[in-house]
Write a structure and sequence with these properties.
- This protein is α/β, with parallel strands linked by helices and about 400 residues long.
- It contains ten helices and 14 strands.
- It has a single domain (about 10-40, about 60-405), classed as TIM Barrel, CATH 3.20.20.
- The chain is about 30% helix and about 15% strand.
- An eight-stranded parallel sheet has the order 9-8-7-6-5-4-1-10. Strands 2-3 form a two-stranded antiparallel sheet. The protein has a two-stranded antiparallel sheet with strand order 11-12.
């Protein structure tokens, strides 16, 4: 496990590791299942039968924190003028907003906050659509962060022991959420059935992430997928299904097992790619993505990535990304952040990938009390400079499709 630097306390280090453990464990989940080598995913250079062009790629932002940040930060600025972040991202070329949905965050101490609950997510979706951006709705199926180490069952479902009842709960929650959104013309274009689901979903709190029980896991995942399909049909709106795992090296074993266990009805593979926590070197990411696409015949998007533009901290909370996050050739500067994102996006296009989403470019310095402490753990990796009144950074050039060429 790599050591994250620049934390203000050991407590914060442990809390951040809880969120990002999915990225720092080289084997995906504590040796869970097959342990692919780097050669497994980068040994070939397949030809993409469905080449990607810049005109049809998603360039997105996970803006889940923005509503909350507007209550406790200095806001967002461009050329010294306050801007609406959703309108600004759209004006720069962003065409997709990703947003996480927690089942009932009000039961999670210490904040007992409603942010990332249904009403907050509905507000985010409305703002995205008002600014002509598509939406990727990320169901965590938890009251808090879900990742490979922690796929904790919602508190409301914790006493359910009958798998059929649990499947019904999964289905009804997913279906009803989408139908409610659709009634207000807010249905998303893509739904993630789970977040970084490298390990078994809907586990009791504290249950370790060990070998996946696919007899159970496939029923849970397929219930969520079926709910999306049925809601899509009832709403008469195409809603695509994504399954999301952390780090590209985990895609081969996970989707091999998933498809062998009848989890096949999905449109997108979503991956998180943070070079600091991945076995796949940056120079190999094109081949890795192309191999995943050719192996499973699904569209693929990078739905989480980020890069620091500085190592300076601008609030009371320490930052997650330190020197270990750097890739050769891309310094921790505003220009280095921009160039990393443009290079990664071009690599994704070259591999036949269909999109890149930046994780939380709006989690600016703030005084909010979140689950991890007071402030932002990401303010050195956002697209606004906390050292300059949250002025917009060159990273926004990532959204300009003129920076990319056909593969």
């Amino acid at each position: 496990m790599k050591i994250l630097k620049n934390y203000t306390s050991v407590v914060l280090l442990l809390m951040f590791n809880a969120l990002f453990i999915s990225c720092s464990d080289d084997n995906g989940i504590n040796g869970l299942s097959k342990d692919p080598t780097d050669d497994d995913i980068v040994s070939e250079d397949p030809q993409d039968p469905n080449p990607t062009t810049p005109s049809d790629i998603y360039l997105g932002a996970d803006l889940s924190y923005v509503n909350e940040m507007e209550t406790c930060s200095d806001g967002y600025v461009s050329d010294g003028v306050a801007v609406d972040p959703f309108a600004f991202f759209s004006s720069k070329g962003a065409n997709l907003v990703r947003v996480r949905l927690w089942h009932n965050p009000t039961v999670v101490p210490p904040t007992l906050s409603s942010f990332s609950g249904y009403e907050d997510v509905k507000k985010t979706i409305r703002r995205a659509k008002e600014n002509e951006m598509d939406v990727l709705l990320d169901f965590h199926y938890s009251d808090t962060w879900a990742d490979p180490a922690k796929q904790w069952i919602p508190d409301a479902w914790k006493d359910i022991t009958d798998l059929e009842v649990l499947k019904d709960s999964m289905y009804n929650y997913t279906f009803n959420t989408l139908i409610k959104l659709g009634a207000e013309n807010l249905a998303p274009e893509i739904v993630q059935v789970g977040n970084e689901i490298n390990s078994e979903m809907l586990r009791q709190i504290g249950t370790p992430a060990t070998q996946i029980n696919w007899a159970r896991n496939k029923e849970i995942i397929n219930s969520g997928i079926q709910a999306v399909r049925d809601a899509s049909s009832q709403l008469n709106k195409e809603i695509k299904v994504m399954l999301h795992i952390a780090q590209p090296e985990n895609a081969l074993w996970f989707f091999d097992q998933a498809m062998d266990n009848e989890v096949t009805d999905f449109d997108y593979i979503g991956i998180s790619y943070y070079p600091i926590w991945s076995n796949v070197e940056f120079e190999d990411i094109t081949t890795a993505i192309a191999n995943i696409i050719s192996t499973f015949d699904r569209e693929l998007m990078i739905v989480e990535t980020a890069y620091p533009f500085t190592f300076t901290n601008h609030d009371n909370q320490g930052n997650i990304l330190g020197n270990g996050a750097l890739v050769s050739g891309f310094p921790a500067t505003p220009e280095g952040q921009r160039d990393y994102m443009i290079a990664l996006t071009q690599a994704t296009i070259d591999a036949g990938g269909k999109g890149v989403v930046y994780w939380e470019p709006g989690w600016v310095p703030n005084t909010c009390q979140t689950l991890f402490g007071n402030g932002s753990g990401w303010d050195n990796a956002v697209f606004f400079d906390g050292g300059n009144n949250n002025e917009a950074l060159p990273g926004f050039e990532f959204y300009n499709k003129e920076n990319y060429t056909d593969n």
